[in-house]
Amino acid sequence: MAHTTASGAPRDMVLIDQQPTTFNEADALVHSSDPLHPANHICSLCRQFYTHGWVTGTGGGVSIKHGNHIFIAPSGQQKELMRPEDMFVMDFATRQYLRRPAVLKPSACTPLFLAAFTQRGAACCIHTHSQWAVLVTLICESGLQNPSERNVFSMKEIEQIKGISRGGAGSSEIAEGGRKVGNLGYFDTMQIPIIENTAHEEDLRDTLEKAMVEWPEACAVLVRRHGVYVWGKDVAQAKTQCESLDYLFQLAVEMHKLGLKWV
Amino acid sequence: MAHTTASGAPRDMVLIDQQPTTFNEADALVHSSDPLHPANHICSLCRQFYTHGWVTGTGGGVSIKHGNHIFIAPSGQQKELMRPEDMFVMDFATRQYLRRPAVLKPSACTPLFLAAFTQRGAACCIHTHSQWAVLVTLICESGLQNPSERNVFSMKEIEQIKGISRGGAGSSEIAEGGRKVGNLGYFDTMQIPIIENTAHEEDLRDTLEKAMVEWPEACAVLVRRHGVYVWGKDVAQAKTQCESLDYLFQLAVEMHKLGLKWV
Amino acid sequence: MAHTTASGAPRDMVLIDQQPTTFNEADALVHSSDPLHPANHICSLCRQFYTHGWVTGTGGGVSIKHGNHIFIAPSGQQKELMRPEDMFVMDFATRQYLRRPAVLKPSACTPLFLAAFTQRGAACCIHTHSQWAVLVTLICESGLQNPSERNVFSMKEIEQIKGISRGGAGSSEIAEGGRKVGNLGYFDTMQIPIIENTAHEEDLRDTLEKAMVEWPEACAVLVRRHGVYVWGKDVAQAKTQCESLDYLFQLAVEMHKLGLKWV
Amino acid sequence: MAHTTASGAPRDMVLIDQQPTTFNEADALVHSSDPLHPANHICSLCRQFYTHGWVTGTGGGVSIKHGNHIFIAPSGQQKELMRPEDMFVMDFATRQYLRRPAVLKPSACTPLFLAAFTQRGAACCIHTHSQWAVLVTLICESGLQNPSERNVFSMKEIEQIKGISRGGAGSSEIAEGGRKVGNLGYFDTMQIPIIENTAHEEDLRDTLEKAMVEWPEACAVLVRRHGVYVWGKDVAQAKTQCESLDYLFQLAVEMHKLGLKWV
């Protein structure tokens, strides 16, 4: 009696983009005994994010850039069950897949992850469907918190804001015009832009890239009625910023319920 | 000093429906070293669902159809403590129990699970008592969200809706009249019918089957003041749809608290 | 460098109530390799209840009656760290301690646990400080849900009510006057009495015993601004009723927030 | 392929304050097979506190005083991933670091932890960013619960208050003028002062120390829009008081939503 699932199906060697890749070469990209190897790390992060309610129902995703390799969790799979052999690996320079599990689909978030790696020099990007992120975008949309700020989430004078960097990953390199770098201070106003959702996730790329240009200090972009993209210069920064933002989103929803202003 | 519980009681060979079944034959149906064998899988799913608050207080249930065998968790038992030997096994064609643990009662949900397997070609059906599902049915009942939609939960333009299939399990086979198959799109309106609760769970069958006919695109039926039944073509689809729906139910309750409309 | 805590302190043989008990005899009462032995079971239950938020901050407690022995978790200790050797053991007939850990205090809940064992024939009693239980007693006190029911929590037509027994433990033995036994039905009204809190927990005994007499169908008593006592004929019944009640308390608070009536 | 993180970086012998310390001497301070050794205990506490949402996004912190040694978790690190070798160790008398992990920063909370150890004789101090603590300070600030108590959180007649000590750690030693010692009673009013947040955490020291003087019965100080500092005579007391307070903060927020008064 054999029990197979999508992620349990046999995975054969794949030929991609004219680059013959042997089974062993492609597989070696995702096999390591190091728990911090990107293929292993994405799996443990997904298990942790599932318990936070960030990636239930196959939603959300994670990508890590390691050198010239981009590791990406597949689309439409149960995130808490991810295994290293489920990972896609893309060459950053050529955008060609070096490894592509036969029966899985690449994540529709891929162009958005690449935007963070390219525009911000990020090395990790996390996408969650956190209900707190969605509710914050709905409250902004309603204009009930601040009628003039429907497309940006602003908050200040909350200690946890100090966990958020200016300019996202690699801010020290990309800062210009004398803009301050490092993390936000307690009296600074944190601003996270909100873009409108689209029918297809990959169609978010243009507005997400535009938001990155217009909000050079933001380390995240909220997507209305959808969730949030958060990046960082490494896994630790992306993850802790994602935690701090989720904390702030939840706090903002509770404050709104209590009739308190965010700014 | 012996400590026995209902589920820890000795289980003897049982004779069911004139079909003599030896202990070994009946037991072999639920013993496997494969964690994805239905008897093992139901146990691990129940433990996970308990942590979500879906099956506390012995509420809720899970059934998996594997070939011609229906595996069902027993009634009135602590779901987080389920063991493979607690499972009932029914023959799909004859509706006769092939295995029936001596001291346990079959689930009152059995006719409802069978409806999903028969009418929708599902292979897994999950029943939860999620408080969010119950609250959604109460808000609909109150008419405070939409006075003209007391018997259906509708939601649109929330990304997580894309985790919900049209027509439930096996939609590609049963779709007719040119109806679109696959998952819902972001701009589609998700509609989950709500049926009224009855004194005895098995009496829900007629209205549940009627709802399945009337709402061919639904992959779930809400039961007022009770919970939800969710099905899928396999365990992964049933489980991830159950997660997506629970996410949407909770989001809907929070939106209602904030004075926001679901559609 | 020695690190000792209250529960890590050495425990010596104790002489209690003129009954000389050797170290081995007293210790044998709490040492077993059976995970369902009361001394082990209380520890695993406490760990589980801690994750539910029922016994944080050393609050709450659990007692199991096994034959003529009453096993009780100590007072003022971290419940998620309980070990079998922390357990008090009392003789049910004589009310004398057969085992009394030297550096620990017996639970102030002891007379209340005994009331459930004596008056209701229970074999397990759980006391939680669940915030949902406390909030329900506060809403009743306010009269905002029902001004004429400040001393009883009533709910009906919620499926989870069917997880609650009539008359608590041993109801079949104590039922009289033709009262129905078994669990509540969907259309029955569940009623849990609320007693006022006192400065000292042991002083709750009289009103708790009075409530047990006046509400023979109740399997639990709420204590205003404090928590709840829930009992059952065995651990499974006490635990699952405690889970069902907590589910109902939380649902009731959410319903009240949404302006919905409990009955 | 090497994967290094901040906390995974190699740690060399460090020379601190002219006191040459060999690798082995400094390291011996944090290496022990005893799970209750402060260096191990802080790690397990941080993992537990992370699941409570108290120290996400690198927020919060813990310090334990053991004899003349102060153990402190580092600043800006993921608290659920702490390892014994990440700990700073300070000499209580000289305030000099006996161990200072090369690539980590000492916690900005250090002067505040020291205030609890010095002024109150505490041996453990916990700092959380609990959202419930922050919300309580916001509700007080708004004056909506009690316009005359913006700088103190007061609550009474809730059983869990009995989990809070008078005068914090070592109260029996520092109590004077006949003030009662021990824990609060049910009819006592618990009062936790609230101080205003500052741009830099270390600048809280003066107002925190002032609050300790002005509120000698308090075992904690709330920091507006930031979190809470809780101390105790040992880890058990600090931790269980922190749990009891967090329970009370959450209950207070829920009570406020329901229109109920705290006192």
Automatic annotation (TrEMBL), chains A, B, C, D:
Q: How is the cofactor bound?
A: Binds 1 zinc ion per subunit.
Per the UniProt entry, what is one GO biological process?
Answer: L-methionine salvage from methylthioadenosine
Q: Which GO terms describe its molecular function?
A: methylthioribulose 1-phosphate dehydratase activity; zinc ion binding
The cross-references to Pfam families, in alphabetical order and at most eight, read: Aldolase_II (PF00596)
Residues of the active site are 159 (proton donor/acceptor)
Cofactor dependence: Zn(2+)
Record's GO cellular component, any one? cytoplasm
Q: Which positions does UniProt annotate for Zn(2+) binding?
A: 127, 129, 226
Q: In which pathway does it act?
A: Amino-acid biosynthesis; L-methionine biosynthesis via salvage pathway; L-methionine from S-methyl-5-thio-alpha-D-ribose 1-phosphate: step 2/6
What Gene3D superfamilies does the record point to? Class II aldolase/adducin N-terminal domain (3.40.225.10)
- HAMAP family in alphabetical order: Salvage_MtnB_euk
Tell me the protein's name.
Methylthioribulose-1-phosphate dehydratase
Organismal lineage: Eukaryota, Fungi, Dikarya, Ascomycota, Pezizomycotina
